Amino acid sequence: MDIEVYEGLDRESLTAPAHVPAAVVRAAVDDARSPVPTGVHRSVALAVARGSEKTARLRLERLARVVMSTGQVDSPVAVWSTDWSTLPSAAYEALDRSIGATWGAPSTRNAMRDSVRAVVRACRDAGLMTHDRATVALSALRPEKIGRDEEKQARGHLGREAVKAAFAAMAADESPTARRDAALIALLVGAGLRREEAAALDLADLDSGRETLVVTGKGAVVRSVPLAPGVRRAIVAWLEVRCDEPGPLLTPMSKTVPRVAETGRRLSVNAVAAAVKRRFAGEDATVRPHDLRRTFVGDLLDAGADLSSVSKIVGHTSPSTTAGYDRRGIEARRAAVEKLSVPFV
Fold this sequence. Notes:
16 helices
């Protein structure tokens, strides 16, 4: 494996390379179940196998800085080289206290803890950490119990009228960009895709009938997503502009002439966010791609779809994650109970 990109770290300023090539990270992940090459950042190699590369790297880098600030590490090693498998137990306990003091939202604190817990479990499974030491670390970073906040869960969901208005505005716009954005919005709010998943789509991921989409989600897990009629129509309308050449499904548009820039170029995740913000500019709060995914889940659950099926469609590993998107309140639960027949006489 070529690991030259990990050499030359600035250990004085504790900085890391701004970007690690995906090919190198994937190679490290492939080798994560055996002793990890010493030149590769062990935390990333193991954690990426369990989730998003970008998210894992950013969280672990921030947490490594927190570890150093606690004074529990003997030497100020570079952030990018922090070896989580050899930290003393006191470092994990200090890290947990610092997480509580640094991040205000319980869900964010738990996400930070989960990032390190994933690394600890992977180190244990790969034989890089004893079972006893891993147990101590996992206990120190035990997640907080978070109660269900129904008002908070209702936030981030778009109303039907807002979505309808956005599609109407794009339909009135005859530009190729509007067609592309309509297909993008349809995939987010009508198929529940993450913005990274939408940007990574290729034309080949669509079946011949344009009825099913093959999506590669977190952890390189592949799932099949059925497409609603409206989503299919939006994609077909976009393909009339894009044409049927192989390559990325969603492409950038030329800034000088009304046409597709290059079918071989891929729409970036930042461009996805910008398109969503632009198409929902009339809303009170900034609309983000994940709000559309949240709306998709809420709409399916409101329509009576079962939690397990919705979880599989959106690529959640656990239905409990999907339940966090459920915006239904006490009235929905009361209506469900009313359907029961208790034979009391």
